[in-house]
Amino acid sequence: MLSVQSISVNYGQRQALREVSFQLQPGEILGVIGPNGAGKTTLVRALSGVLPLAGGHILVEDHDLGRMSEMARARQMAVVPQARNLPGAFTVWEMVLLGRTPHLGWLGSLSPQDEEIARQAMQRTDTLDLADRRIGELSGGEQQRVLLARALAQSAPILLMDEPTTHLDLQYQITLMDLTRSLAEQEKLAVLVSLHDLNLVARYAHRVALLVGGLLQAIGTPAEVLTAERLSQVYHVPLQAIPVPGAPPVIVPE
């Protein structure tokens, strides 16, 4: 379990996150939403250790991540960034094997077990047939699946995804999020994913966290958080949430 306890993050004199608290359980997807500048990417970067905390604690099974080494932290959390500025000359196989880095010994050599774990990650993300291709030759959707395979190869119980569907067409968005949902439920991964698309959040997240100006304004089920009144106020656009029997609401402009 991931426990985020009153964390704050500063950018110079500006407070980008202010006392944000929540818990994330194994097998759960927490969708993080909010307008531009709300703190979504800052939250992912703070959880992964890229940004230092100005206050609060991040715990994994009661262990404080702030006291862990970088390698120990990488064994607990894997990050799927947006597919951009990737080293185009790397092969897919080389990229996915980088996910095993936190588990290598002093000599840094890969074992047959490391290679098998990487191969399994590629099978689950349908990237095994891309193994010999160069990253620069792949489409955006293929690159995003490779990044997910690399994260799975880390064998970490927590998966952080920073707007993974940006610049992907609808087919790749659905494929990626279907895969993420199945991995969370089958592998019992605790997944935090920041998204712009409110309908993707409604469809795939078990719970939704709404960030506004660095504050956690609401957290709950999609039906509880994605209300027309709240979203219209936050996004400054008249929106309506159309109820769908047995399914999450559909968010559309009024």
| Percentage of β-strand residues | 25-35%
**What's the helical proportion of residues?**
25-40%
Compressed to H and E, one letter per element, the order equals EEEHEEHEHHHEHEHEEHHEE
Unreliable sequence segments: none
Shape: globular
N- to C-terminal distance:
39 Å
Q: Could you tell me the mean pLDDT?
A: 92
Biggest sheet details: 6 strands, mixed
Structural class: alpha/beta
Oligomer: single chain
According to DSSP, the number of beta strands is 12
Strand order of the largest sheet: 6-7-8-3-9-10
Rg, rounded, reads 18 Å
- The number of distinct helices, counting runs of at least 4 residues, comes to 9
What is the strand and helix layout of this fold?
Blueprint: E1 2-11, E2 14-24, E3 29-33, H1 40-48, E4 55-60, E5 63-64, H2 70-74, E6 77-80, H3 92-97, H4 112-124, H5 140-153, E7 158-162, H6 170-187, E8 190-194, H7 198-204, E9 207-212, E10 215-220, H8 222-225, H9 228-235, E11 239-244, E12 247-253
Parallel strand pairs: 3-8, 3-9, 6-7, 7-8
Antiparallel strand pairs: 1-2, 1-4, 4-5, 9-10, 11-12
Helix pairs in contact: 4-5
